[in-house]
Amino acid sequence: MPDRPAPARKPPALRPPYRAAWLALAALCMVPAAQAFEPETYAIDPVHTRVLFAIDHAGFSKAMGTVSGSTGTLVFDRDDWASARLDVRVPLERLDLGDAKWNDAVRATNLLDTKRHPDAHFVSTKIEPADADHAKVCGDLTLRGVTKPLCMDVTFNALKRHPLPPFRRTAGFSATATLSRSAFGMSAWPTVIGDQVELRIEAEAERARNGTDAQQAPESTEPSASPETSVESQPETPPATEPEPTP
User: I need a surface site. Which of 3, 84, 136, 203 has the fewest CB within 10 A?
Assistant: First the structure.
């Protein structure tokens, strides 16, 4: 009778110690891929971030001013708008309308009251993507000690390595929004100053290295405010003690 072929041998099973080592190695290889999709933390660039506002001036024109020096953090994934988080403070003492008297009038206690409330503070609560480059960013804006919801229409401009030192990876955005000043307790001079404030924001944010050098929003000394804070809770200041809001 012809010899039968020997049956094929099964590969030896991995012994428990080797199997555990192989599984650990496979898990380590998968970690970088998973981390690559996590949102990154960016620090708001106070030099290249500016808030422009426009408001009606007695029906003659729109008075325009800017505020520079904003600080805060942005957590952002280019491929997942919905996971973004924004926490930013705007230093209102740096408000500039182009005239010293006008600046002082707007910072006075019956308007922005920057002595007691030096910052505007925005914290995002919901991101609604429209497409790859546009989203509605909604959150809570605290201004003059009053917290109200605010939504901004945001356009994504770029995410790339900055061409100048220190060559950080930088994200750039443009945004627009509208708010009512009276909703935040600023009802003075209604015949001179309009109620609707138009906002335009140009912002840049630099990627933080290892998440350790993101600019944190400075602690504010103003009292905490809840969304339920009402305009009526704000102290009234006699208009006669405040400067006329026109130079």
Answer: 3
